[in-house]
Amino acid sequence: MSKNARILITDDEKSIRNALREILEFENYTISEAENGEEALGIVKKEPVDLVLLDIKMKGMDGIEVLEKVKEMKPELPVIMISGHGNIKIAVEATKTGAFDFLEKPPDLNRLLISVRNALKSSELMKENRQIRTELYGDTEIIGESAAIVRIKELISKVAVSNSRVLITGENGTGKELIARSIHDNSNRASKKFVDVNCAAIPAELLESELFGHEKGAFTGASSRRIGKFEQADGGTLFLDEIGDMSAESQAKVLRALQENQITRVGGDERIDVDVRVLSATNKDLQQEIEANNFREDLYHRLNVIPIHLPPLRERREDIPVLAKWLLNKLSQKEIIFSGKTFSDDALEKLKDQHWPGNIRELQNVVERLALLSSGDQITGKEIDQLVLSKKNPKNQLESLLDETDSFHEYKEEAERLFLLRKLEKFNWNVSATADAIDIQRSHIYNKMKKYQIER
């Protein structure tokens, strides 16, 4: 732990600020001062600060208001509250809002120094954990400058510090898990585990054991006790991905766990308390699933406290150049390519013109392909045409075909192929849902997929 950590003392009494400064500078800490909440927030916003000592009763904004705004700006910044009017109610409120500790005036010297050391150490551990998670899972930075992404970033900064449940919706490949990890990393639970479960990838008969664990002998093959994801995430965050694919029985048991904050392992009867923040995600329209009796409405309302919808890449095309350059830079950082490679302006324009049914995941693959197969220091528009042949915007394909053919039959078949491809993408390749939407039989869709060699 660095003794040169910068501590911001915020108190409207100059004598208190002087006393705290003297104590902490003697311990070789670097000190900044603010005499009110507005001044403190300005310093936190513009200057590096490692810890805030914050009085509760001040003129203007009180300490709790300042604490809330600090946690919105920098959730990982530890704050120690100090008050001459200490009581349990205020201490509990401060802790719930995200305070690291609560001290009464005048603070005991040893108690103050121990609290400061612990807060700084906790902050250091949080940063180390963040670094380790970045190395293991990749960067959780949300890239984009579109209005939709700016709104999502603002929403994350507001909800991350709470314990509210969040339902993230969007097509495959839009980055729903990235949003969930960003919420966790900016929360007060960031030092605890982020545990993810892909509900679509686990057979229904095994999902209950995966979520809640099981006791030895609970079923054939249960040779030992297993701790489930709810228990593993205790104190941290549980991310339920593809929640719309969960069976009705599993939905009922998850609902009960959320209502009671307790779980029971399969084959056991012990009620186990769990403190878990649940984030969930789906590419399905859960309102439609509720109407079709595929999803419980009461569970939907439990999960959908804060909704976040991620738009597909084709609806935020202004982000594509930024994302493409960022992805290219990440490849150079991993030394997959040399650091000097760039995109030409016309290449970026051509990337913006693509349809991107696979969203960011598809863009990532295309950027890597272009980076490895392009010949020069700069990826050109011509190389986009050569190496991204099948990803043209359907509208542009039809417009090009108008100039390229005089055959009505050829144009009609290409239009039918593109129409079917677009609808299958829209309904996440669910043939039954697509058939209902476009009012033809499923067998006809399968025949046309075979005819036009359409594959997921």
Description:
The chain has helices at 14-26, 37-46, 63-73, 88-97, 109-137, 147-159, 176-185, 204-212, 229-232, 248-260, 286-291, 297-303, 320-333, 345-352, 359-373, 381-387, 394-404, 408-426, 431-438, 442-451; strands at residues 6-10, 30-34, 51-55, 79-83, 101-104, 166-169, 194-198, 237-241, 262-263, 272-273, 277-282, 306-309, 342-343, 378-379. The chain is built from 20 helices and 14 strands. Helices cover 50% and strands 12% of the residues. The two termini are 52 Å apart. The protein folds into four domains: 6-133, Response regulator (Rossmann fold); 161-311, 3-Layer(aba) Sandwich (Rossmann fold); 314-391, Helicase, Ruva Protein, domain 3; 394-451, Homeodomain-like (Arc Repressor Mutant, subunit A, Orthogonal Bundle), CATH 1.10.10. It has a five-stranded parallel β-sheet with strand order 2-1-3-4-5, sandwiched between helices. Strands 7-8-11-6-12 form a five-stranded parallel β-sheet. It has a two-stranded antiparallel sheet with strand order 9-10. The model has no long low-confidence stretch (mean pLDDT 87). By secondary structure, it is an alpha/beta fold.
